[in-house]
Amino acid sequence: MSPSDQFDGSGSTALAALEPEPSAVHTALPDDARRARPGRRLPLTLVVPGVLIAVAALSPAAYLLLRAGFSFSLLRDELSSPTTLPLIGNTLKLVVIVTLGTVILGVGAATLIARTTLPFPRVWTVLLTLPLGVPTFVGSYAWVAFSYRYFPESQLIFGLGGSAAILTLTLFPYVFLPTLTALRRLDPAQEEAARALGHGPVHAFCRITLPQLRTAIATGTLIISLHLLAEYGAVQMLNYETLTTAIVQRANLLGMPESARALAVVLALGALLLLGADRLLRGRVTPVRTGGGTPRPPMKWRLGASTPLWLALCAAVVVAALAIPLWVTASGIVDHLTGSGGDVDWDALWQALGNTAQWATAAAVIATACALPVSLLAVRYPGPVSTFVERSTWLAHALPGVIMALSLVYLSVRWLYPLYQTPSLLVIGYVVMFLPLAVGAQQVGIGQASVQFDEMSRALGKGPVQTFSRITLPLSLPAIGTGALLVGLDAGKELTTTLLMKPTGEHTLATALWATTDGEVLDFTAASPYGLALLLIGAVPAVLLARATLRN
């Protein structure tokens, strides 16, 4: 048996799937040789760009406080308004219910695949990852169109219940993938020792294995909860009022931008609370045996006669998450092909597809480059400065797209006018919003590249640039690439920010779909070509993530 690796618990993002397998030398390193040493001098080549990126990420939040028209008395008035507390309550209920639902679905599905004799685990891994490629507003759009078409009198999918169910089915892969990756890395010896001492399989799993998954679960739930704070399209479709829908209405429809910014400050404070809760949930780093030191696969729980039941449950989740969007989209395409749905503007579709691919790819490349100094600081030089820089990138992820758009438009008009209403400004918005996805991915990959390798390279006379390019970068490249995939995926699906910041006359697939009905869900036929293109584009990175998990 090879010496066991030490790792911090669970592969902190879905992107842990792409980490390279540790080498023999790597697995032989003691734990303290593989971790960054506290107190190391912070290099200016990382601190300066890291702080600048943190300032850029905080600029939308600064806009809320520093823009003329905002005051703390206005914030107090908004908080005392009879409509504000219900909005906060609605938002809180949605975040809690969806987060709990995604944890139950994600951890449960990962456990079934990794720890039981469920048939066809590779197939289920791919199928349960595919909902990641369905934009939340497209899923909601499809469900509402399906309801209007086949159950016109039903109100079942509207309100809190429908919103929570549809968002849970769309977002649970953010928990499923990192948990599955973590389960496959853990050494089963500890769990089996507990079973040998008389504990049942479920008790041993909950007592020994589940605590080691908290980092994976925490990262997935943080992404989901911050996403829910900023979600607009899906909840607007499903007639559920949250802080974000109220902010958009005040900013766009009621002509009350100061009130909108005051509510956005409340939302930003909620994001800060979530970031603090995330730190508490992760707790202290708990070394566990993983990776190259794992001697054999774990003993799997035999499902026996209950196998058909678990297969039916997995199939029900896949059908609920994918079947309705695919069915409604396919029905619209059939209507177009048979002539009953009108003609498709192929030129507009191809132009929207090209814009989506071009702008999302640019955002992925730039976000990957910007995330590197942040990730290197957080992993190699832990401390107050690196924590501030890394945590700052998450705040913008929780702000509504309308606030992000208004802040960047204000900054461009005030100081960067040549960028106003250009694709460049939109790409900057994507980078600020989705930078945390790249940072989280890179932290996993860089964390697996031992710091002792860097020190050995420097001792051999190599400079920091050569050390990074020849040692750290190759070991981290798979995770870095997957972070770029996630940024591109989310940028391609983004609706609200794109609606407000896109150049005049231009569209992405998301805005073109939305424009087919101006947000009124009456018939999905006109939107179906754009919906199909979005689903196909989203499926590509989702399948790549699933394949990476299977390779791991």
TrEMBL record:
Segments traversing the membrane: 44-66, 94-114, 126-144, 156-177, 216-235, 262-281, 309-328, 359-381, 393-413, 425-446, 467-489, 530-550
Pfam families linked to this entry: BPD_transp_1
Predominant location: membrane
Highest taxon, organism lineage: Bacteria
InterPro entries registered for this protein in UniProt: MetI-like (IPR000515), MetI-like_sf (IPR035906)
Keywords: Cell inner membrane, Cell membrane, Membrane, Transmembrane, Transmembrane helix, Transport
Start and end residues of each ABC transmembrane type-1 domain: 88-278, 353-545
Cellular localization per UniProt: Cell inner membrane; Cell membrane
Membrane topology: Multi-pass membrane protein
Membership in a protein family: Belongs to the binding-protein-dependent transport system permease family.
PANTHER family: FE(3+)-TRANSPORT SYSTEM PERMEASE PROTEIN FBPB 2 (PTHR43357:SF3), INNER MEMBRANE ABC TRANSPORTER PERMEASE PROTEIN YDCV (PTHR43357)
Name listed for the protein in its UniProt record: Iron ABC transporter permease
